[in-house]
Design a protein that fits this description.
The strands form two sheets. The chain has a six-stranded mixed beta sheet with strand order 2-10-9-4-5-6, with no helix packed on it. Strands 1-3-8-7 form a four-stranded antiparallel beta sheet, with no helix packed on it. The chain is built from no helices and ten strands. The model has no long low-confidence stretch (mean pLDDT 97). The chain is an all-beta fold.
């Protein structure tokens, strides 16, 4: 059974930083391109960052480029999202999942950017 467990969210002021983690189980993690997604209230879920299986290639949504950094540790089956210079519009529930193959969603982790 594939499972993703996201953590690290919270309440942060604009301009602040957070580091999200996502532990995966039930898949051969190291062969998958992994992504971080987010869903804000009333909006569709969007892919904001992705990293290739070996970590050599990354892509970011324009809205987070230069502020967010995705990384992964294949030995720990974990993918990370370092978020800097956070803005109120980054407020959302953040999820990780595959990109080419999307599995059942985890519970996500809430990120709230507010003063």
């Amino acid at each position: 059974q594939v499972q993703f467990v996201e953590s690290g969210g919270g309440l942060v002021q604009p301009g602040g930083s957070l580091r999200l983690s996502c532990a995966a189980s039930g898949i051969i993690f190291s062969v998958y391109t992994m992504g971080w997604y987010r869903q804000a209230p009333g909006k569709q879920r969007e892919l904001v960052a992705r990293m290739s299986s070996g970590g050599a290639r990354t892509n970011y949504a324009d809205s987070v480029k230069g502020r967010f950094t995705i990384s992964r540790d294949n030995a720990k089956n974990t993918v990370y999202l370092q978020m800097n210079s956070l803005k109120p519009e980054d407020t959302a529930v953040y999820y990780c999942n595959g990109v080419s193959t999307v599995y059942s969603w985890g519970q996500g982790t809430q990120v709230t950017v507010s003063s």
